[in-house]
Amino acid sequence: QVQLVESGGGLAQPGGSLRLSCVASGRSISIYAMGWYRQAPGKQRELVADITSGGRANYADSVRGRFTISRDNAKNTVYLQMNSLKPEDTAVYYCRQGSTFWGQGTQVTVSP
After folding, report:
1. Cα separation of 1 and 3, whole Å?
2. How far apart are CA 24 and CA 76, in angstroms?
3. Main-chain dihedrals φ then ψ at residue 74, nearest 5 degrees
4. What distance, in Å, lies between the first and last C-alpha atoms of the chain?
5. To 10 degrees, the CA torsion angle through 82, 38, 52, 100?
6. How many CB atoms lie within 10 A of CB 99?
7. What are the beta bridge partners of residue 24?
8. How many Å apart are CA 11 and CA 65, to the nearest integer?
9. Quick check: 1 pLDDT over 90?
């Protein structure tokens, strides 16, 4: 059974940084595309960034140049480095493995 556990969320000031981690268990991530999504209150869940099994990354326009997705297949972990945070980045951030498996989410709040 696949389990994804996100961590690293919390409170940050505008302009600050956070690093999210998503540790997978139950199945190797090496052959899967992995993604980070977010959902703000009252809004639909949206793609933040994803990364192919080969390491090619794709970003939402709203985060390109500020966020970096990466993966460590040996640790079965995917990361999201978030820099230059803005209040509009406030949301619950979810990890996704392939097209099927989701984590429970981690809250990111950006506020003075």
Report:
1. 6
2. 6
3. -65, -30
4. 40
5. 150
6. 8
7. 4
8. 21
9. no
pLDDT per residue over 48-86, tens digit each?
Answer: 999 999 999 999 999 999 999 999 999 999 999 999 999
Residues recorded for the chain: 112
Amino acid at residue number 5: V
Residues contacting 80, CB < 8 A, separation 6+: 19, 20, 22, 36, 48, 49, 67, 68, 69, 93
What confidence tens digit (pLDDT) does each residue in 6-42 have? 999 999 999 999 999 999 999 999 999 999 999 999 9
Q: Are 15 and 1 in contact (CB under 8 A)?
A: no
Distance CA(25)–CA(84), nearest Å, equals 31
Q: Which helix (H) or strand (E) holds 36?
A: strand 34-39
